[in-house]
Target: Adenosine 5'-phosphosulfate reductase
Amino acid sequence: MTLINLSAEAQSLNERLASLDLAGRLALAASLGGRVVFTTSLGIEDQVITHVIGQNRFDIDVVTLETGRLFPETVALISETENRYGIEIKRYFPLKEDIEAYAAQYGLNGFYDSVEARHACCGVRKVKPLARALSGAAIWITGLRRGQSGNRADTPFAEYDAERNLIKINPLADWDIEKINCLVTDEAVPINPLHARGYPSIGCEPCTRAIKPGESERAGRWWWENDEKRECGLHVPDAALPSLESSEL
Ligand code: SF4
Model:
C-alpha cells in the first residue's frame, strides 16, 4: 500500500476506533490483514491489552523488549502473564555486539552522563530490538494513553508511522488511569507489584524511580534529565532524537 493510502487508512481507522470498546478496537486491528504486533512493557496499560487479547484469542503477536536491564519483578511478570493467558510473549534482546560497543564508548551505565549517551543506550537496548520486533508488521499496537504525560496528550487512536511504514494503533488513547485500575481489579489482571510501590510507569531498573505525590505518571523515567519531553525513542521519530543517527537504529 502506498504512503498516501496508509495515511488515509489511518485517518479513517482513527474515526472508526473512537466509537468502539477496547475489545472492539483490538478485534478491528486484528482484522486488518498482515502481521499485527502488540509491544508490551508489562506496564499496567499493556497488561490490560494483553488481558483482552488473551481472553479473545485475537491473532496478534505479543512481544516485549527484554533490554537486559529490567526489574526482576518485570521479568517474572512476563512468564506469569504467559501462563495466565496461555500465550507466548516473544522476547527481543539487544545484540551482544551492540552492548559491547556501547559499553566501550560510554561505559555500561554511561546513560547517566549525557542525553546523548542515554539515547544511545535506548537505541541499542530498545529501538534496534523494536525494529526487529516490528519487521514485516502492518499494524503496531501500543498502550499509549493521552493522560500519561503532556508529550502524549494528543495521542490518536490510529496514526501512520512513516518511519516504520505501518499503522500504529493506540487503543487506550482515551482511557484514564482510574478506568485501567477498575478493569485490573474487576478482572484480576496480573500486574507488576512495583505499581503499588509508587511506580506508575516502569522501564529499565537503573532509569526508573518511584514518583512523588503530585508528579506526572512518567516523572520517574530518566528523572535526572530536565527535558519534560524525555522518551526512549520508541514513540518519537528519529528527527526528535538528535543523538540517535538513523544508521544506529
Ligand atoms: S531506559 Fe536506561 S538502561 Fe534502559 S535502554 Fe534506556 S538508557 Fe538504557
The CA atoms of residues 60 and 144 lie 17 Å apart. Residues 3-196 form a domain with the Rossmann fold fold (CATH 3.40.50.620). The beta strands are 35-39, 61-65, 89-92, 137-141, 158-161, 166-169. The two ends are 24 Å apart (CA to CA).
